[in-house]
Amino acid sequence: MTPLLGAGPAGPVAGGARAAREMPRHAEGNGTFLPVQKTRVYLSPGMFGFATLASLDYFEHFTRAIEGRFRDRGRVVEVRVCEVHPTASILRRAAKLARLVDESAGDDGGPIHIIGHSTGGLDARLVASPSVRLPGNAHRRLGWTSRLRSVTTINTPHFGTPLAAFFATVSGQRLLYAVTALTVAGLKLGAPPLAAASALVAAFGRAQLGFLEIELIDRAVESFIRVLDDASSRELRGWLKLLRDDQGAIVQLMPEAMDLLHAGLDDRPGLRYQSVATYAPRNAVRDWVSALRSPWGAMSAAIFTTLSNITARLDEHYPCRSHDGSIEQKLARVLGELPPPDANDGVVPLASQVWGDLIWAGKADHLDIVGHFPGKGGHIDWLASGARFNRLRFDAVLDRIVTGMVAGEQSGLSEQANPPPRPVIETRAPERGDVEQTAAAAGALGGPPVGDPAA
User: Fold this and answer.
1) Residue 188 Cα distances to 18, 56, 184, 343, angstroms
2) Regarding beta strands 357-363 and 272-279, do their DSSP bridges make them parallel or antiparallel, or are they unpaired?
3) Distance CA 343, CA 281 (A)
4) Who contacts 188 (Cβ-Cβ below 8 Å, separation ≥6)?
5) What is the helix (H) or strand (E) element at residue 181, kind and residue range?
6) What torsion do the CA atoms of 327, 328, 334, 337 make, to the nearest 10 degrees?
7) What is the pLDDT tens value at each position of the chain, 455 positions in all?
8) Which helix (H) or strand (E) holds 57?
9) Is the CB of residue 347 less than 8 Å from the CB of residue 163?
10) Residue 115 is inside which H or E element, if any?
């Protein structure tokens, strides 16, 4: 369980009485002290995400960024990560999320927000749906939805992803284990064993040709696990066992299966839905690989390219986008142009990631956007995509997310709520994109324009 931000380590359930004791209070004119409402933010990870695994906090940079932005607004915030089964059905995952919120949201009436990364965005939408029927007694754990003010989805496959169809095959399941092990080892160490990564790239090629050397893949997984310490290795083995035991979400994320989800999933009236969508241009990957000096960097780029190529295999009957053309209009308006239909972040097609208000769209891969990009402060970017995502863009994304969350609170309190923030436009020129994006963000927030030093 992720600790309470600014409050030290938390127990299994850090809400309730303990949260009430720690809640700041403000003085009334008659000398009495009333508790200050606390904003609660819940992060729902995707199949490659987690709360804490192998002593690695997946959302560490993201939670710090959320905390800092609320603190700058003079707000008290508590951020929690839902520890869900990585590949269980969306219904099972949503039930776990509902229970977590119910057990920890308290009864102070403070606003609640859910942010879902990848599959976690579908968990959030399902929990928020007024027509949802969760398994067991989880449907009784939804009393807090009246306090829910926003659902933010990041890199979420709203219309499915072809990569799920690949991972649903026998060969794909084996490779999913290896990619997951590589993800954990890569984020923790920065550069897992090069030989094992090379074997993984070769295995992808064989699997796409219709055959796979299972023993080779198993050896690669063992190589990733062995580089971790004993405790981390045990945790990773347990995580991989979960992947083998239940793969309901893999089947549900196939583009052919998403029609059923949309048929039974309703948006909650009055709730703010906002999304972040990213892609890594194919030519950027090829051009950047030649500039990489690290053998591991080149191998990582090859793995990303393979995943991206599989994700780009769109079926004309299930194109991973809506049929009314509204998504293309949103993307063109935000980006200034419409990327090719097969544009993706390495895991999810770009058009599949759009739902509700598109508050940010630009160049980033599937892991960049939650803080796993190169830079100072402990950032690790094991997946070399060529998107060249950086801290400036990360800050722009987080500014957009938090501003939208606050707008959701305002709209829940008054019909005269402020309009949602305008999207940030990212230009094609990489050397100018960051400056122009920051200028657009400042203008949307009412701040002074940012000049281009190169002008």
Assistant:
1) 32, 6, 6, 28
2) parallel
3) 7
4) 54, 55, 56, 228, 232, 380
5) helix 170-189
6) 170
7) 333 333 333 333 333 333 433 445 544 455 554 456 899 999 999 876 776 766 678 899 999 999 999 999 999 999 999 988 888 899 999 999 999 999 999 989 999 999 999 999 999 999 999 988 888 777 788 999 999 999 999 999 999 999 999 988 878 888 888 888 888 888 887 777 888 888 888 888 777 766 677 777 888 888 888 888 888 888 888 888 887 888 888 899 999 999 888 888 899 999 999 999 999 987 665 555 555 567 777 788 888 888 999 999 999 999 999 989 999 999 999 999 999 999 999 999 999 999 999 999 999 999 999 998 888 777 777 778 889 899 999 999 999 999 999 999 998 765 334 455 655 544 444 444 443 444 444 444 434 333 323 32
8) strand 56-57
9) yes
10) strand 112-117
Tell me how many degrees the CA angle 344-386-343 measures, rounded to the nearest 5: 15
Residues for the chain: how many in total? 455
Tokens of 7: 């409050």
Hey, what are 218's tokens?
Answer: 């198993």
Residue 353 CA to residue 121 CA, distance in Å, equals 10
Q: Measured between alpha carbons, how far is 279 from 292 in angstroms, rounded to an integer?
A: 20
Across 320-350, b (16+ Cβ under 10 Å) vs e yields bbbeeeebbebbeebbeeebeebbbbbbbbb
Give the tokens for residue 385: 């995509």
